[in-house]
Amino acid sequence: MIIAVIGNSSAKPEHYALAEAVGRELAKRSVTVVCGGLSGVMEAVCKGAKSEGGMTIGILPGQSSRDANQYVDIPIVTTMGYSRNVIVVNTGEAVISVGGAFGTLSEIAHALSENIPVIGLSSWPLTVKGDGDPVEPAIINAADAVDAVEKAILAASSRIYS
After folding, report:
1. How many CB atoms are closer than 10 A to CB 19?
2. Is the distance from CB of 95 to CB of 85 less than 8 angstroms?
3. Which residues contact 68 (CB under 8 A, 6 or more apart)?
4. Single pTM value for the model
5. What is the mean pLDDT of each run of 10 residues along the chain (162 residues)?
6. Domains and CATH numbers, the chain
7. For helices 13-28 and 145-158, what crossing angle results, to 10°?
8. What is the 8-class DSSP label of residue 97?
9. Is-contact 91 152, C-beta < 8 A?
10. In the chain, how many H helices and how many E strands?
């Protein structure tokens, strides 16, 4: 199983810690991490995964595999800039969003438009109709790293592929 983890490249310390914990939890469950491969949340999730012997994939926006953070096992060079966000979320069978800025929001939108489940950990509060209705959240909220990973694995396992 591959789970995408998305978030800000200049993460707040609390988001960095959450992402690192998510990476550890995914690796403990033998889940491969895919992310944008750079700094911030992307570095933290890869660092956490590697600390538990996990596998990491970085979908890079630029022209060089040297741009990847030191914890990426498989760097994939796209030369696509932010357009690579579509590849990041579609590579995962579910997405965990940790914090995030507008790039993260675009990844969330791409995932939701493709019916890829998104689990939010201190992330954007989105609803299905965009009207703030808490009855129809677009993102599955998680309380902590363990909760986020468990929900992502369950959501990924429940997906129906056509």
Report:
1. 34
2. no
3. 37, 38, 58, 60, 75
4. 0.94
5. 96 96 98 98 98 98 97 98 96 96 92 94 75 68 96 90 56
6. 2-158 (3.40.50.450)
7. 50
8. E
9. no
10. 5, 7
